[in-house]
């Protein structure tokens, strides 16, 4: 009944599958609600031999590498599919997961999710619940969060028959979406780089993987057509362009010099728009979601530069998020490395969420 084709297996997996088949029969076509949660905890809860044996088998599965075998974000956040049930009556994807003090990727359960929580550390909790069964009703969303230690779990997702399946696959199987972040200032005490870091952290809190780079590390010469013709596109441009290409979106901090973008930023974008690596110049930017934030010491907070950068990047084919942040009076806007105004933190959270929700799935050609 549980289809395991193409999935890893090992000596003890069949025994766990027997337990899971019993459970699936018990769940039947019950609604995924509080009543089912109570019945599962009553009949198959931590006080039962079945629960304790399943808990043990999952640990063995981790050692035998058929459970929690995919690293999502380091050793403390792993997942692994155990099987799929699609027999006309039941419709579940069964996953194993191991989380230790992590906040996992934000996702929605369009048709609900059932979780069996099996803490290793006595105080560990999964979304506020200790050892036992937790049912998420259809339409609920969450960051799967483990606090207080290590808690492996098994989950059953109702997968539906249409696009829902794709959504669940994206959440469970694929790595987090990735954003490249850079600032148009490489000054050591740059306000824009500070704002960039704050926005990058907010983006991470939405489950996005963010890589911050400094344009200083690319030491780009000023663009010169003769230089390009005689020596070709510099290696550092190929590297930067490659990074832009392989990320799902961009987060850019935009300082303002004389009412426009900094030469450092414009020069980097100009170089990266040159045709090379066998691709059209603007290929890495096509429809790429971009969020622009900026700050200046003046009362307009880099507003003019941001509008120029929006025009430049739109011309290059990027999908610039309609909202942006122009933070005025930079010297007063930060306190101890954070935003001084808590309301502004909420603005940054909301803005970065706009970028997160526009990110497409990871590129198919990513290694
Ligand atoms: C050449 C130059 C031109 C500037 N022009 C403006 C400007 O037009 N508007 C503004 O608000 N600030 C302007 N500033 C001040 C910058 O906002 C300030 O230097 C800021 O700290 C730069 O960003 P950073 O801290 O990220 O390096 C200018 C600074 C420089 C060096």
What does this structure look like?
By secondary structure, the protein is α/β, with parallel strands linked by helices. It has 2 domains: 13-173, Jelly Rolls (Sandwich); 178-358, Flavodoxin domain (Rossmann fold, 3-Layer(aba) Sandwich). The chain has 11 helices and 18 strands. The chain has helices at residues 13-27, 34-44, 49-64, 163-173, 191-204, 225-231, 235-246, 263-272, 303-315, 330-333, 342-358, and strands at 70-71, 77-86, 91-100, 107-109, 113-117, 125-126, 132-136, 140-142, 146-147, 150-158, 178-183, 209-212, 249-253, 289-295, 319-320, 325-327, 334-335, 338-339. A 6-stranded antiparallel β-sheet has the order 1-2-3-10-5-7, sandwiched between helices. Strand 2 (77-86) and strand 3 (91-100) form a beta hairpin. Helix 5 crosses helix 11 (342-358). It is elongated, with a radius of gyration of 24 Å. The two termini are 34 Å apart. Flavin mononucleotide is lined by residues 185, 187, 190-192, 255-259, 296-298, 300, 330.
Individual helix count:
11
Helicity level: 25-40%
Across the major sheet, the strand order is 1-2-3-10-5-7
SSE-based structural type: alpha/beta
CATH architecture of the largest domain: 3-Layer(aba) Sandwich
Topology order in helix (H) and strand (E) letters: HHHEEEEEEEEEEHEHEHHEHEHEEHEEH
Number of strands: 18
- Tell me the name of the CATH class of the largest domain: Alpha Beta
Q: If you compute it from the alpha carbons, what radius of gyration comes out, rounded to the nearest whole angstrom? A: 24 Å
| Bound ions, cofactors and other small molecules, one mention each | flavin mononucleotide
Q: Which regions contain 5 or more consecutive residues with pLDDT less than 50? A: 159-174, 362-367
Quaternary class = single chain
Query: How many domains, as an integer?
Result: 2
Described by the principal axes of the CA atoms, the overall outline is: elongated
Q: Note the main sheet.
A: 6 strands, antiparallel
CATH superfamily of the largest domain: Flavodoxin domain
State the separation between the terminal residues, measured CA to CA. Answer: 34 Å
**What share of residues are in beta strands?**
15-25%
Nearest-integer average pLDDT:
84
Q: Output the CATH topology of the largest domain.
A: Rossmann fold
């Amino acid at each position: 009944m549980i289809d395991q084709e193409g999935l890893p297996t090992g000596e003890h997996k069949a025994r766990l599958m027997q337990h899971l088949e019993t459970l699936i029969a018990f769940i039947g076509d019950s609604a995924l609600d509080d009543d089912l949660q109570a019945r599962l905890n009553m009949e198959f809860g931590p006080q039962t031999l079945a629960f304790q044996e399943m808990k043990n088998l999952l640990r063995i599965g981790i050692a035998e590498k058929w459970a929690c075998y995919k690293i999502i974000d380091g050793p403390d956040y792993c997942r692994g599919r155990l099987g799929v049930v699609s027999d006309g009556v039941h419709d579940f994807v069964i996953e194993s997961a191991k989380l230790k003090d992590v906040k996992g990727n934000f996702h929605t359960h369009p048709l609900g999710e059932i979780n069996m929580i099996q803490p290793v550390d006595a105080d560990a909790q999964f979304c506020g619940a200790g050892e036992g069964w937790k049912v998420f009703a259809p339409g609920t969303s969450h960051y799967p969060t483990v606090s207080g230690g290590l808690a492996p779990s098994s989950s059953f997702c109702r997968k539906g028959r249409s696009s829902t399946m794709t959504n669940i696959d994206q959440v469970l199987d694929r790595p987090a979406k990735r954003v490249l972040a850079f600032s148009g200032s490489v000054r050591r005490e740059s306000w824009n780089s500070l704002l960039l870091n704050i926005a990058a952290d907010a983006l991470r809190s939405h489950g996005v993987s963010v890589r911050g780079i400094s344009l200083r590390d690319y030491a780009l010469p000023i663009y010169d057509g003769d230089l390009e013709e005689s020596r070709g596109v510099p290696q550092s441009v190929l590297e930067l362009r490659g990074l832009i290409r392989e990320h799902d979106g961009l987060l850019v901090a935009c300082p303002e010099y004389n009412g426009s973008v900094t030469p450092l930023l414009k020069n980097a974008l100009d170089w990266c728009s040159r045709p090379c690596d066998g691709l059209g110049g603007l290929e890495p930017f096509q429809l790429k979601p971009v969020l622009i934030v900026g700050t200046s010491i003046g009362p307009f907070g880099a507003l003019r530069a941001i509008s120029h950068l929006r025009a430049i990047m739109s011309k290059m084919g990027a999908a610039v998020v309609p909202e942006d942040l122009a933070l005025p009076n930079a010297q007063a806007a930060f306190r101890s490395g954070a935003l001084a105004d808590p309301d502004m933190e909420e603005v940054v959270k909301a803005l970065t969420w706009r970028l997160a929700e526009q990110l497409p799935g990871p590129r198919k050609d990513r290694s």
